[in-house]
Structures are given as structure tokens and as C-alpha cells.
């Protein structure tokens, strides 16, 4: 079985399928955080019995569906700036996550616009990238005015 981004997989006992977001070092990672450790078993080439390609009739898990939904933005996304800063330094999402004290999934959600830049996160981004916290908050407010208003 070969799992690729967009494939649907499930593990023994799952009642719904998990959509594969990316394949890293031979492991298929789902969109949702809840089953990341389970889906890590889904090795791309020789998958163990615990992970299988899901039949089309199996519904997609609610967490994957929610995480896959694109963020609604009206301006330049702070996530694009985070990704640009990270790539400029040659860091992986995991390396950035370690520097920020977050998980790789949270960094991915931030870069894709599904995670808001809060004041504590802006302070962390300022520390790691040397870009003032107010700039991160300005980008968040410009891209997602409603979400920024709720986070304030």
C-alpha cells in the first residue's frame, strides 16, 4: 500500500478515515492531531497491518475535515511570513516547532492560516525571528480581522 497526500487511511478500531496531509521520512501524517501517533504507523512502502487504506464509503473523521478547511483571510497571512522566515533560515517545521516550544502540527496550522497569532505566540515569533511582536499581530489583524478581534 502506498499512502500519499490526500490518501485516506485508518487504523484498527477507527470508525472514520483520516486524510493524509503529508509524507515525511516514510511516514504518513494525517491532518488531525488526535491520531498523529496512530497514523505514524502507516509506513509508505511496507505498511504494517495496523494501518490500511480506507474504503471510499468510510466517512472522514471530523477533526481531519475541520483541519482541512481553508482559513478565510482578507489580507496577507502571517502564516506566509512565518513560512518565509523559516525557509530563509533553512529550518524544517519540526525545528521551528522546537524553537517555539510548539508541535509541528501547530506550526503547520499556523503556516496554513488555521492557527491565529496570539500575543504570547507573537512574542515567541519575535524572539525566534527577530521580527517585532507588533508586526505579527498587525499581520494577523489584517489577514483575519474577526479572528484577531476575538483573540484580543
Number of domains: 2
In angstroms, what separates the terminal alpha carbons? 46 Å
Detail the poorly predicted runs: 36-50
Task: List SSEs in N-to-C order.
Answer: EEEHEHHHHHHH
The CATH topology of the largest domain turns out to be: 434 Repressor (Amino-terminal Domain)
Radius of gyration, taken over Cα atoms and rounded to an integer in Å: 17 Å
| Broad structural category | alpha+beta
| Average of the residue pLDDT scores | 75
Number of helices: 8
CATH class bucket of the largest domain = Mainly Alpha
Question: How would you characterize the largest beta sheet?
Answer: 4 strands, antiparallel
Q: What's the CATH superfamily of the largest domain, by name? A: lambda repressor-like DNA-binding domains
Shape: elongated
The total count of strands amounts to 4
- The level of helicity is 40-55%
CATH architecture of the largest domain: Orthogonal Bundle
Strand order of the largest sheet: 3-2-1-4
How much strand content do the residues show? 5-15%
